[in-house]
Amino acid sequence: MKVLIFASLVVGIFGSYESDHGTTTYHETQKPVEIPIYKKYAIPIPHPIPVAVPQQIKVPIPQPYQVQVPVPHPVPVEVVKRIEIPIEKPEPYIVEKKVPYIVEKPYAVTVEKHFPVPIPKPYPVHVPVYKHVFHHQSKGHGWKHY
Fold first, then answer.
1. Which of 8, 18, 57, 67 satisfies CB 3.0 to 4.6 Å to 22 for a cystine?
2. How far is CA 101 from the centre of its chain?
3. What pLDDT does 141 receive?
């Protein structure tokens, strides 16, 4: 058994070696290829240069002129200013008093709250009564009438 496994491994190794290095129709050749070489020449390119040009900018100044309606100077303007007046409120302060007996803290306090719960009252419902249906069992002869 071991001999068969070893033989199959040897055959597989030689088969892969032959496929990699064995006879084949593939053949590599070398061919020289010319690669063009481009030379760079420094050509000066003119760029625009900012030049300061002196300019005089005139800003119009408003001048007073005569109008038909007299305008009082200075012009009265209504100013609404809200002033908050602080109201002095007495601040609470803690007064410590000596109590002659021991007070347990926290105080045992029970609070009972009663909440009324509305209970819906039953309302009348119409139930039809059919005359051909027996609503009571007859006590005769063991027959049951429904």
1. 18
2. 60
3. 59
CA dihedral 25, 28, 33, 35 (to 10 degrees): 120
Structure tokens at 66: 């005569």
Tell me which residue has tokens 């306090």. 109
Tens digits of residue pLDDT in 29-85:
888 898 888 888 888 888 888 888 888 888 888 888 888 888 777 878 888 999 988
What is the spatial distance between Cα 17 and Cα 11, in angstroms, rounded to a whole number? Answer: 10
Query: Is pLDDT of 20 > 70?
Result: no
* DSSP labels, the chain: -HHHHHHHHHHHHHHHHHHHHS--S------------PPP-------------------PPP-----SS---SSPP-------PPPPP-PPP-------SS---SS-------------PPP--------TTS--S---STT----
